[in-house]
TrEMBL record:
Protein's name according to its UniProt entry: ATP-dependent helicase
Gene Ontology biological-process annotations: nucleobase-containing compound metabolic process
PROSITE patterns per record: HELICASE_ATP_BIND_2
InterPro entries: ATP-dep_Helicase_C, DinG/Rad3-like, Helic_SF1/SF2_ATP-bd_DinG/Rad3, P-loop_NTPase
Record family assignment: Belongs to the helicase family. DinG subfamily.
Boundaries of every Helicase ATP-binding domain copy: 27-306
Gene Ontology MF terms: ATP binding; DNA helicase activity; hydrolase activity, acting on acid anhydrides, in phosphorus-containing anhydrides; nucleic acid binding
Keywords from the UniProt entry: ATP-binding, Helicase, Hydrolase, Nucleotide-binding
């Protein structure tokens, strides 16, 4: 295979030659294959050439239909081959990854029409893989309604064999189990409390084997924002433990739907703690020959951990519409945290002495020390609570404490934006009121390139946007009737986007009793693996897809998606993350809530028109359009050019 898809002259700048080839692709090669010449796409390509040449961060805001994915893929592949390091394409979530790599997706199009062999491999997040330990636990529990035994029997022979693995392959991908709901999948999938470092199955684990596979990619590694930022966050720690970083050295990064990176960063650059995990970890030390004084400290720490988590349960309160509980920073709670931290410090000092006696297994000791250091960092942050966001959630094994920094700017500036490599933010919605500062400031990006190009589609002719009038006093029932009428008008063929999972649950609960919906096929996010639900929705033209996470990235051209119903205007949730952001804003509604909602609303409406032949209607059911003139005015301002809001 030729290294470059063009004749390379070492005497001339590489990116300049790559740009000339990209121009040939868009002006000649793709039009010969039936693609149209798009001025917006070519303009974007020349802007990306500058970013790659200068190794800068660029905000590439390009409307639906500009072909932005093709533009960044061409540069990413060429630059990967030039540097001999793969490019990373980081998508907002796993469903967007599937959209990119599906057989009719953009990577396949380029490979087919340019006769270009592209080595693109998936780096899925760990929770997208089956955990052998959790599967065994589910089998032991003996739930007769679930087919855990069938799943175990379907695994490759080498999983349960003790013989050396002569041949192996990745397995256990979430996509392989579409029949499982999200709740069922969580019973057997990896979670953040699994200790992979000491697991005796780790060398036969599907997650480990998939990692070995994608590391060998020569062109593209496609992962989620969460996974890329987990790589950033764990990079130093994994090296200290003698582990490879999650991702190999790479040449460039593309953040597809980059406006969502901040929330992913806050999620990844945080800590989670659970009492049962701490107890299991720390009691490993008791299996070794250790001094009695250290054993007493360990017993005391276990007791104090229970007391601390009991205090978190007592000093927390439910947040309506969220599974997260807000923590009340009471002096009694802070005192319990401080006592626990003092015991951890004493244990760490004791481990230093024990390590000099060589009575502890060195590998086990390293794992325990790494976990204790993580807990110390998290609890130190908690004691300086003005610098963090924290909450607790319930789980079958007890409370889970989550702690994350309020600002992720410093970490991202050092480990991402300071690496002197091309970084592309790609989305149809990156600016607010024509400025990119809202996204740039939230990520700590001071020096960047940017451009914005509109969609080539004729929205005035192709799209209608409706804001139905129904008696607001009728509440949920009134909105339900209006949604049913909208679905009846288009014979299904609709995507319904919900702001929260609670809204989706209520709609699902009431849909069964709605006569108008009786003959319609409704798919609900969470009832199965998301890419299979999308595929079924696309193939069954008169079906309806109900989702919380598909505001971005869903690409279903044609009559299967002729109606997008926005159940509620997508204001940010009332959870600890946004509560903290609001507290630091001079005008929380104008600085936090409204920009977030407008960006997401633009994305949601953007699911409707995906080709020049598409026509459809977007139905906005947000009550604020009728009760808040400011909100209505701002929504009108972000509608596609020529489109008016019809009551």
């Amino acid at each position: 295979m030729e290294r470059y898809p063009f004749s390379y002259n070492p005497a001339r700048p590489f990116i300049q030659q790559a740009g000339e080839w990209v121009a040939d692709v868009f002006y000649e090669l793709l039009p010969e294959a039936g693609f149209e010449v798009r001025d917006e796409q070519i303009y974007m390509a020349f802007q990306l050439e500058k970013a790659f040449a200068e190794k800068k961060t660029i905000f590439a805001e390009a409307g639906v239909g500009t072909g932005k994915t093709l533009a960044y893929l061409l540069y990413a592949v060429c630059y990967a081959r030039y540097t001999r390091k793969p490019a990373v394409i980081a998508c907002a979530d796993e469903s967007l990854i599937e959209q990119l790599v599906k057989p009719e997706g953009d990577i396949a199009k380029l490979a087919r029409h340019l006769d270009l062999r592209i080595d693109a491999r998936l780096g899925k997040s760990p929770d997208q893989y089956l955990c052998l330990r959790k599967l065994d636990e589910a089998r032991v529990q003996g739930d007769e309604e679930m087919l855990w035994e069938d799943i175990a029997a379907s695994l490759p022979d080498f999983v349960y064999s003790h013989a050396p693995m002569q041949a192996f392959h990745a397995y256990g991908d979430r996509r392989d189990y579409p029949q499982l709901s999200d709740e069922e999948w969580q019973r057997i999938s990896w979670d953040s409390f699994q200790d992979c470092f000491t697991c005796d199955r780790r060398h036969r684990c599907g997650q480990t084997l998939s990692r070995d596979h994608y590391r060998r990619s020569t062109d593209l590694i496609i992962c989620s924002h969460d996974y890329y930022l987990e790589h950033v966050w764990t990079y130093d720690g994994r090296k200290r433990e003698g582990q490879l970083p999650l991702l190999p050295e790479h040449s460039s990064v593309v953040f597809d739907e980059g406006h969502l990176l901040e929330s992913a960063a806050m999620k990844a650059l945080g800590y989670k703690m659970k009492h049962v995990v701490f107890e299991e970890l720390i009691t490993r030390l008791l299996q070794n020959e250790i001094r009695e004084s250290l054993a007493v400290l360990i017993d005391n720490a276990i007791v104090q951990s229970e007391a601390m988590f009991a205090a978190f349960g007592h000093f927390s309160r439910l947040i309506p519409g969220s599974d997260r509980k807000e923590i009340i920073l009471h002096p009694e709670l802070l005192q319990e945290v401080h006592r626990f931290r003092e015991l951890l410090t004493a244990i760490e000092e004791g481990l230093v002495f024990e390590s000099e006696l060589y009575t502890l297994d060195d590998y086990q000791l390293r794992i325990v020390e790494e976990h204790l250091e993580m807990m110390q960092k998290a609890l130190m942050l908690f004691e300086r609570s003005e610098a963090l966001i924290c909450w607790v959630t319930d789980s079958p094994e007890g409370l889970v404490l989550s702690i994350m920094p309020k600002s992720v700017k410093e970490v991202l500036e050092t480990h991402v934006f300071g690496l002197n490599m091309p970084i592309v933010f790609s989305s149809a919605t990156l600016s607010v009121d024509g400025s990119f500062r809202y996204v740039a400031d939230s990520l700590g990006i001071g020096n960047f390139l940017s451009f914005s190009v509109a969609s080539p589609y004729d929205y005035e002719q192709q799209m209608k946007v409706l804001a139905p009038q129904w008696p607001l006093a009728d509440g949920f029932a009134g909105k339900m009737k209006e949604a049913a009428r909208a679905l009846q008008a288009t014979g299904g063929r609709a995507l319904i986007l919900f702001r929260t999972r609670e809204e989706l649950r209520l709609f699902k609960q009431h849909a069964a009793a709605e006569p108008v919906l009786a003959g319609m096929r409704l798919y609900f996010e969470g009832d199965g693996e998301i890419s299979h639900l999308i595929s079924a929705f696309q193939s069954e033209e008169e079906s309806v897809l109900c989702a919380v996470s598909l505001w971005e990235g869903l690409d279903v051209p044609g009559p299967s998606l002729s109606n997008v119903i926005i159940w509620s205007l997508p204001f940010p949730p009332h959870d600890p993350v946004f509560i903290a952001k609001r507290k630091t804003a001079a005008d929380p509604f104008a600085e936090v809530d409204l920009p977030y909602m407008l960006l997401r609303l633009r994305q949601g409406i953007g699911r409707l028109i995906r080709s020049r032949d598409d026509n459809g209607v977007a139905v906005l059911l947000g009550e604020e359009l009728r009760t808040d003139p400011v909100v209505r005015e701002r929504v009108l301002a972000v509608l596609p050019e020529g489109v008016r809001l019809q009551d």
